[in-house]
Design a protein that fits this description.
single chain; 112 residues; 2 helices; elongated; 24% helix; alpha+beta
């Protein structure tokens, strides 16, 4: 389209900012026996950063605890105990934003 040859009939475009839904991830990591706590926690944080980078590009992405737990279950993690967030439906005009992630490595470990 160009102004000289063709013009749209309705050229008024309304753009609204999305509504932000803030949430915090609070999780405990239970490790396998022998797993390095610092390395495993760093790997979980890196996995979360990649997961969140993908999510933050889209509107209307629900907050699904199972997806968050799956993301945090990296090599060395036996179980993820997710304390928050709960399952939250995000409307198409909303954007879910993680404002903090609190990961704790529990002292107990499992053989599997």
């Amino acid at each position: 389209l160009s102004g000289e040859t063709k013009r749209p009939l309705c050229d008024t475009v309304l753009v609204y900012a999305p509504k932000v839904v803030d949430y915090t991830v609070d999780a405990d990591l239970v490790l396998f026996t022998g797993a390095n706590a610092a390395e495993t926690k760093a790997a979980a944080e890196a996995a979360w950063a990649a997961f969140e980078a993908e999510r933050r590009q889209k509107l209307g992405s629900d907050i699904v605890p199972l997806a968050i737990s799956g993301c945090l279950k990296v090599a060395g993690v036996y179980n993820v105990i997710l304390k928050s967030p709960s399952h939250t439906i995000i409307a198409p005009n909303q954007w879910a934003r993680c404002i903090a992630i609190n990961l704790r490595v529990l002292p107990e470990q499992q053989d599997g």
